[in-house]
Recover the amino acids of this structure.
């Protein structure tokens, strides 16, 4: 993964495949800490000016604001996370589905753009047998880079078992 958006934009099928693959066997408070810490490590390696947030069942389990991030990143996190909570899938995928229909989330969702943002960076915490129970969100990079950072962290987290 790179921190820029120079690679090809993923198709809806690729985004849906990410969600099928990135299902966790469980998700405890300790898992949130481990995943959040992994994300912080990846972001620090890249000097990424991001804020990171993990929510489960309405409770914030992890939050970090790295150098260069701002309060605006926290506002974006909240808006992107609401999309995951509403649609049950990645915020980037929601936006891509609207774009595939020739429109935008802002024009067609009928949701307040001050409260919801279908921009990349929030990904569902999907647990085997339970479904979507929360979201892991990054804000501070271009939207596709935010999305890719979360996906990379989830892939590594699953590999670590």
């Amino acid at each position: 993964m790179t921190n820029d958006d120079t690679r090809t934009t993923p198709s809806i099928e690729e985004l849906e495949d990410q969600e099928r693959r990135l299902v966790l066997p469980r998700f405890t408070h300790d898992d949130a800490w481990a995943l959040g810490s992994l994300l912080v490590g990846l972001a620090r390696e890249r000097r990424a000016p991001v804020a990171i947030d993990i929510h489960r069942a309405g409770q914030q389990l992890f939050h970090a604001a790295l150098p260069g991030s701002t309060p605006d990143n926290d506002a974006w996190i909240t808006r992107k996370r609401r999309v995951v909570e509403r649609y049950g899938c990645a915020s980037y995928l929601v936006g891509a589905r609207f774009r595939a229909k020739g429109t935008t989330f802002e024009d067609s969702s009928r949701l307040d753009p001050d409260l919801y943002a279908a921009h990349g960076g929030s990904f569902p915490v999907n647990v085997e047998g339970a479904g979507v129970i929360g979201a892991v969100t990054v804000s501070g990079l271009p939207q596709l880079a935010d999305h890719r950072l979360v996906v990379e962290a989830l892939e590594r987290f699953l590999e670590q078992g």
Summary: The longest strand covers residues 131-139. The chain is about 45% helix and 20% strand. Confidence is low (pLDDT under 50) at residues 1-6. Strands lie at 23-24, 51-56, 59-65, 122-127, 131-139.
